[in-house]
Amino acid sequence: MQDTPDLYVVVVNDELQYSIWPAGRELPGGWRSDGFVGSRAQCLAAIGNRWTDMRPLSVRQHVGSAPTQASE
């Protein structure tokens, strides 16, 4: 796949931590697309709306305040 430098994809890992990744590049191990693609600013705004609890999922589950699965 060819890089698309102006587009990014929102990615999430098993701990429900979010990041952005250049569109068209192979995702790093342990990360999957959450389906949102846009400019850097759009992706960061989307993350801001999704990632409201910065604690890793395992920590949230440990204290009993987390959903059991990531929403896709």
TrEMBL record:
Domain MbtH-like: 1-49
InterPro entries: MbtH-like_dom, MbtH-like_sf, MLP_fam
Pfam families xrefs: MbtH
Protein name: MbtH family protein
